[in-house]
TrEMBL record:
Pathway: Amine and polyamine biosynthesis; ectoine biosynthesis; L-ectoine from L-aspartate 4-semialdehyde: step 1/3. It is an enzyme of class 2 (transferase). It comes from Streptomyces xantholiticus. PANTHER family: DIAMINOBUTYRATE--2-OXOGLUTARATE AMINOTRANSFERASE (PTHR43552:SF1). Keywords: Aminotransferase, Pyridoxal phosphate, Transferase. The keyword Transferase applies. Pfam families: Aminotran_3. InterPro entries: Aminotrans_3 (IPR005814), Aminotrans_3_PPA_site (IPR049704), Dat (IPR004637), PyrdxlP-dep_Trfase (IPR015424), PyrdxlP-dep_Trfase_major (IPR015421), PyrdxlP-dep_Trfase_small (IPR015422). It comes from the Bacteria. Its cofactor is pyridoxal 5'-phosphate. Its EC number is 2.6.1.76. CDD domains: OAT_like. This is Diaminobutyrate--2-oxoglutarate transaminase.
Amino acid sequence: MAVTEPAPVAPTAAHEGILRRQSLRESAARTYARSLPIVPVRARGLTIEGADGRRYLDCLSGAGTLALGHNHPVVLEAIKKVLDSGAPLHVLDLATPVKDAFTTELFATLPRPLAEDARIQFCGPAGTDAVEAALKLVRTATGRSGLLAFTGAYHGMTAGALEASGGATDVRVTRLPFPHDYRCPFGIGGERGAELAARWTESLLDDSKSGVPTPAAMILEPVQGEGGVIPAPDEWLRRMRALTAARSIPLIADEVQTGVGRTGTFWGVEHSQVVPDVMVLSKAIGGSLPLAVVVYRSDLDAWPPGAHAGTFRGNQLAMAAGAATLAHVRENALAERAGTLGARMLASLQGLAAAHPCIGDVRGRGLMIGVELVEPDSMAPDAVVPPPAPRLAAAVQQECLHRGLIVELGGRRAGVVRLLPPLTLTDEQAVAVLDRFADALAAAERSAQRRTDNRRSDNRQSN
């Protein structure tokens, strides 16, 4: 079904002025603003309206934060209820009815064996803060300092979280191979590749000459998000749970992006029926507002009072919005809906890949979808798969934006186009998203082909 592209709208002076002042005033570290030069002024559900009058379908969702999309009525009502009640908005870590309701709702969604014997630490206010707290917790509880993490991982931007992420070089972190069907570190993929990755980990832990002492914990993502939307194979994840449990190594599941129904189950670890020792939660649990927590087995609760504190860990509006979001996802089976609709979207994109050699792989779980773009003509003779195509991916992102579709990039060398629509996505909206993406991909391919043809023509003329 063809989708009519949004009519071009001339940027307003206010729109251009805001963008210009942002570029002059804000840090060079700004990210999304560089590739998405829009000025949101209104939003509802999947749709954002910019200051230039254009409307966009938002498949970034605040990097996965907006489980229910923008300004969902149940979230707005929960926030208004707190505001109208006269309740304090800032309470440090004091007990409140709002916090009690949030914690009760959260525990009702957790894997049952963990929820029955769990403690919760409110951190503040981002996922990376929760990762830091989790690492500090397991090091205190075990008396050990080392950490097992995985290639391609992303756990945040603070020092400890960066140590555990894919680009770290800190000697306290031992980097392990993460199974990857398409870019398998062993060149074979599938069950065999995952088995070799598990054996590598087991050998490293049991080899007295490996140079790796028993670590404080293993941290992993059920689906690597920033790493390129790479789902952990269920059997491999069960193997990691068994390996760590047998050696008294706490297993930390980073569910910051995979949680609250995103992957088709309420928590990503539920696909493999694994119960971790620690869960790191943020993004969607705050219902669009900043909130981060660590949930862990009670026997790890070795902190003395004040061992891990923070001023902004009692955000009452976020707790109210979060409780409303968790309840709405649970009561309306939105995780199951994400699994069903996500599978249909994956199938459509895999069909698109058959007609586009530049699509190397389509993968994901639920409404966490990645399309890896490659350069098939640049494949080395001894390569297993073609190299990533980051320039093409960036071009597709811009062509999507021109058509009123917001997508994100990730993966090795930013060659993966990522889709993170809200769990409230309708069938009709899913079709529109896929059609706009297909049009954008075709347009980016045509532009790339024209550049190639022009270079060849210039070379012939120069010769």
